[in-house]
Write a structure and sequence with these properties.
Structural class: mainly alpha
Distance between the termini: 23 Å
Number of helices: 15
Largest sheet: none
Helix content: over 70%
Strand content: under 5%
Order of helices and strands: HHHHHHHHHHHHHHH
Length: about 280
């Protein structure tokens, strides 16, 4: 890769590089930077007092709390599920493994709206499972459990997809050596496996958190749009915008954008720390 890169630098004229830089910068400016700045500008357009008032609105606060609650439930669950799936697919050979691996990408292929409808059909009050749960006082659809399930569905491949390539490249030699030395399975996981996959795991969890907070389609179908109860921040933005409450809509949107930027910052920090660790390891 390094040889190919140097070859391009030696043979291609400078204007090609500058042209590509110009095209990419123009694209980022039009598609990302200007819209992002517009959101914050519009949110603060009527003054800081109205901005804070919009964020302190009871319905907005409820949407923020529900969004954070959903992320707080989904992220740890994804960590456990993602590690389990990655361990299964990289450490065991079984019939149907390739089919199982393909199914892992289903949430990427299926529209979030379709995913939401699937949960409505499965856990709706008129379904067998939903009716049975309702008889015990457990409401899934149009309630927090439905929102968590829909968010879990659209986010669960992120952790596994980050860990699987790393575990495949590392192999299981270190774990086999620890097993021969008499370490228990739990000790092998904490002392060998987890340290080796920690950066990929953190990266996957950051992506999961970002998607969980910003998910709209699947959550919109199962939430029922009940103000103060089942609206997350993206749903609250849509409602306020449709009601021409632009200050409130852009205030909530700016908060969501801020959380997304914070996620990107964490992602960049992790990439930097991992690169620094690899550089130190190569120089030893």
């Amino acid at each position: 890769m390094r040889t190919v890169s140097q070859s391009h630098k030696a043979t291609e004229p400078k204007w090609v590089q500058y042209s590509l830089i110009g095209v990419v910068c123009l694209f980022l400016l039009v598609m990302l930077i200007i819209p992002l700045i517009s959101i914050f500008t519009e949110a603060l357009n009527k003054g800081l007092d109205l901005y804070w008032a919009a964020l302190n609105d009871p319905d907005a606060l409820a949407a923020i709390k529900l969004t954070l609650l959903t992320a707080a439930i989904v992220v740890p669950l994804n960590a456990v599920i993602g590690i389990a799936i990655a361990w299964l697919l990289t450490r065991y050979d079984f019939r149907g493994k390739q089919f199982f691996t393909t199914l892992l990408d289903l949430p990427f292929a299926v529209s979030p709206v379709v995913a939401g409808l699937m949960f409505v059909l499965l856990f709706g009050v008129n379904s067998y499972v939903g009716g049975w749960l309702e008889s015990y006082g457990i409401q899934v659809i149009f309630a927090v459990p439905g929102i968590v399930l829909a968010t879990l569905f659209v986010t669960f491949p992120f952790v596994a997809r980050e860990i699987i390539p790393l575990m495949q490249s590392q192999g299981d030699q270190e774990e086999q050596a620890a097993l021969i030395l008499g370490a228990s399975a739990w000790k092998i996981f904490w002392k060998v496996t987890l340290p080796n996959i920690k950066w990929a795991l953190l990266y996957g969890l950051i992506l999961t958190n970002a998607r969980a907070m910003g998910e709209f389609g699947a959550v919109s179908v199962v939430s029922g749009h009940i103000r103060g109860l089942t609206n997350t921040i993206p749903l609250q933005v849509e409602i306020l915008y449709n009601e021409y409450n632009f200050v409130g809509a852009f205030a909530c949107a700016s908060l969501l954008a801020f959380l997304a930027l914070l996620t990107l910052l964490l992602q960049h920090l992790l990439t930097y720390l991992q690169h620094r660790k690899d550089t130190i390891h190569l120089n030893k």
